[in-house]
Amino acid sequence: MGQGVLSPAFTREGDVVCCEGVSLPRLADAVGTPAYVYSASAIRTQYRTLADALGRVPHRIHYSVKANGNLAILRLLRELGAGVDIVSGGELYRARRAGYQGPEIVFSGVGKTGGEIADALRAGVRLINVESESELAVVEAEAARLGVQAPIALRVNPEIEVSSPHAYIKTGERGTKFGIGYDQARQVALRSRGLPHLRLLGLDMHLGSQIPDVAPYVAALARLLELYRHLVADGFRDLRYLDVGGGLAVSYDGERAADAAAFGAMVSDAVEPTGLTLIVEPGRYIVGNAGVLVTRVLYRKQTGGKTYVITDAGMTDFLRPSHYSAYHRIESAARAPVWARSTVDVVGPVCESGDFFAVDRELTDVAAGDLLVIYSAGAYGFVMASNYNARPRPAEVLVEGGRFAVVSERETYDDLVRHEPSTLAWRDG
Ligand SMILES: *Cc1c(COP(=O)(O)O)cnc(C)c1O
């Protein structure tokens, strides 16, 4: 077991792991496994901690839907006053289904289609974060077609070094596909001035994910504010937003999480003198430690000198260990009859050697039928699930004050073939 409490919402009561007082073994009996379980109070606590830390400056928290887009979670966050940051038309649809109005939505993303941009403009989103000069032209065309002015910010790559635990979650360094190169940003801003259906309202960045330190934000903000001062000198009068993106780290095994208070104090110091409204787009920070994946052990076997614990969840349900080499704490949900430990690989049933949750991990001895809790699965968990190996995606459950509700039904086999017609509608080619 690692060190430190990941979230006070998940506790061991007697022998059993509980979420807000709800026994996970009992919950698993009721809804089946694998199942994601989220704590409403943990989500609220994280949101409020960040909101309090930013209290000094005018700010907006736009939760990053891609971390966990379940409608129940989106509604819960909206009640707290959150807006959303979306990266696709599908996320726009989700956000609106959850009740978010246009001004509560910021649209980010490196490859928006014309159709998605038109949908966002029709919805009246607060900002479209534009990532290239060619995107500028597409937004202009769609806005002209609709007869509206598009509110835009430029996503600038500050091109600083970011210490993120995996290359796949770095976005603010030189040479990534994200944003407008720092040296080109002023040119792109000037170009936007010649396009009558665009209104440049802000500057935006997103450094990457799982960043514990404030220093990269300080360095990047300094770059963005330097650009801001150039643009003011160039006569841009409408600038009012500074969007610093997401990326705040959570603790997966007792390592240092982002310090909301330090982050809030630093960005406030930097932004306050400008009078700009600060936008932040946290995802992982809000939900990462508010969720776990509960999975049942199917088999335990020894082969090739190793012991494997084979679970009913696989990489199709939870991809992070395989995709990012991510470490996730794993514990037995109940005390095993024999409280011995051994070193095992925890693996799923998918036909891939990359289908693992833990390699060479010391774990309580569990046997077929026992339950495991995979911690810190609230962000980039269910949203990355797939149907590979024709596996229905798992259920999602929200726990709130001693009660629980299924917020996404386990998929059925019917769901797997729903879009595949049995008689083919051939068309002349
Ligand atoms: C993914 C993403 C976020 C959220 O990142 P976290 O690390 O989950 O906070 C915010 N903004 C943009 C543009 C993103 O792509």
Task: Give your account of this protein's structure.
There is one protein chain. This protein is of the alpha/beta class and 429 residues long. 28% of the residues lie in helices and 26% in strands. It is built from twelve helices and 21 strands. The strands form three sheets. Strands 4, 14, 15, 16, 17, 18, 19, 20 and 21 form a nine-stranded mixed beta sheet that branches. A hairpin with a 2-residue loop joins β20 and β21. α2 (40-53) runs parallel beside α3 (71-80), α2 runs parallel beside α9 (260-271) and α8 packs parallel to α9. Pyridoxal-5'-phosphate binds at residues 64, 66-67, 85, 87, 108, 206, 209, 245-248, 281-285, 379.
SS-based structural class?
alpha/beta
- So what's the overall shape? globular
CATH superfamily of the largest domain: Alanine racemase
User: How many helix segments?
Assistant: 12
The portion of residues assigned to helices is: 25-40%
CATH architecture of the largest domain: Alpha-Beta Barrel
Which strand-content bin applies to the residues? 25-35%
Average the pLDDT over all residues and give the rounded result.
95
Radius of gyration: 23 Å
The largest sheet is:
9 strands, mixed
Q: Look up the CATH topology of the largest domain.
A: TIM Barrel
The total strand number stands at: 21
Number of domains: 2
Report the uncertain regions. Answer: none
Terminal residue distance? 60 Å
CATH class membership of the largest domain: Alpha Beta
The distinct ligands, each listed once, are: pyridoxal-5'-phosphate
